[in-house]
Amino acid sequence: MNAPILQARGLMRHFITNKPLFGAPSIVQAVNGVDFEIIEGETFAIVGESGCGKSTLARLLSHLIEASEGSVIYDGREISGLTGAELRDLRREMQFIFQDPFSSLNPRMTVGALIGEPLRIHKIGTPAERRAKVAELLRKVGLRPEHADRYPHEFSGGQRQRIGIARALATGPRIVIGDEPVSALDVSIQAQVVNILEDLKDEFGLTLIIIAHDLAVIRHVADRVAVMYLGEIVELGEAAEVFAAPAHPYTEALLSAIPIPATGARKVQTKIEGDPPNPISPPSGCRFHTRCTYVQDICRTERPQLRDMDQGRRVACHFADNMSLEGIRTDNQARPPAVARRFARYSAARASMTANTESAKLEKEE
Ligand SMILES: Nc1ncnc2c1ncn2[C@@H]1O[C@H](COP(=O)(O)OP(=O)(O)OP(=O)(O)O)[C@@H](O)[C@H]1O
């Protein structure tokens, strides 16, 4: 059974901006209290519109920035307390792939130096071993060892992102976080790069966290998906099932904007109008109520909690109930085998976490 490798608990990050609103400093609620766990070996996607807090969440998970409140637990340890060797281990074990392959690679370094740099920083191997590792990684991402002597500008966008992937894999990480890893690339090569990432994930036994504003990018690769709106998670569940039957009106609206592959047409079921509200002054009640087709009075005043529904799904909506999940197969037998396996793994991990939390509570009480 795979255990949770990363957990967010009541995670919050607020920024104080320099632009005062009515004379007082403004506070941007970039991430506003999120709870979830990522299971070792899964591909976990975080999706939502631009500005909803995805990148801030990724930076919190990897301890690149401090949380305002709440905690991140990596492999059973709270990361805010890590220092020295433990912090270096975390940096080695958790690597990033950035959005823009044009600006994220230093143009003055050769590809070999770029891929080998994390090995040098972490003092892994001799120079000869590092060169051999660079050659191996170049092959793994579909490039050639002789490309090590060239410079990033000699490569296409897709090739540069492969170089970024090779660099991320150099230190043998356990978790790779791709922050919009393909959104700067031509649509025709996005799938290639995502597939390489997925293949390498299986080969190296990685846990993959993919951040995307475009659901089409993660549709075929994510095991589970967390949908964010204005700093909060509004829906979380098995990707195949969230895609088949979205329970939150925002997820439904996001999905309706995905082009239908055969025709390129957009399947418009639910309209999502306007831009997301400003996270400096988010709407009261449900943050999505100003754009929700199904809005009711209660949505304007009471904030819905993220609650457990059927089949590991968690949803924050006053009106999401089991009815909206009726399209989902209820018995594990009827699921496609891969989904059934992942679901079993996830349910078992959740059950063990709940049991651990309960026994910790009991110990505390005793
Ligand atoms: N250092 C910062 N100081 C002030 N505000 C910030 C800072 N970093 C992020 N924000 C604000 O926090 C909110 C969330 O930003 P974030 O970059 O995490 O969103 P995102 O979903 O990743 O968006 P995008 O896809 O456009 O990068 C935005 O309103 C952003 O302007």
From TrEMBL:
Annotated Pfam families: ABC_tran (PF00005), oligo_HPY (PF08352)
GO biological process, one term: transmembrane transport
CDD domains documented for this protein: ABC_NikE_OppD_transporters
Domain ABC transporter: start-end pairs: 16-255
Keyword Nucleotide-binding attached: yes
Locations listed in the record: Cell inner membrane
GO cellular component terms listed in the entry, alphabetical order: plasma membrane
Main location: membrane
Keyword terms, alphabetized: ATP-binding, Nucleotide-binding, Transport
SUPFAM superfamilies: P-loop containing nucleoside triphosphate hydrolases (SSF52540)
Gene Ontology MF term list: ATP binding; ATP hydrolysis activity
Protein topology in the membrane: Peripheral membrane protein
Family: Belongs to the ABC transporter superfamily.
PANTHER family linked: D,D-DIPEPTIDE TRANSPORT ATP-BINDING PROTEIN DDPF-RELATED (PTHR43776:SF7), TRANSPORT ATP-BINDING PROTEIN (PTHR43776)
Protein name according to UniProt: Dipeptide ABC transporter ATP-binding protein
Taxonomic lineage from the root: Bacteria, Pseudomonadati, Pseudomonadota, Alphaproteobacteria, Rhodobacterales
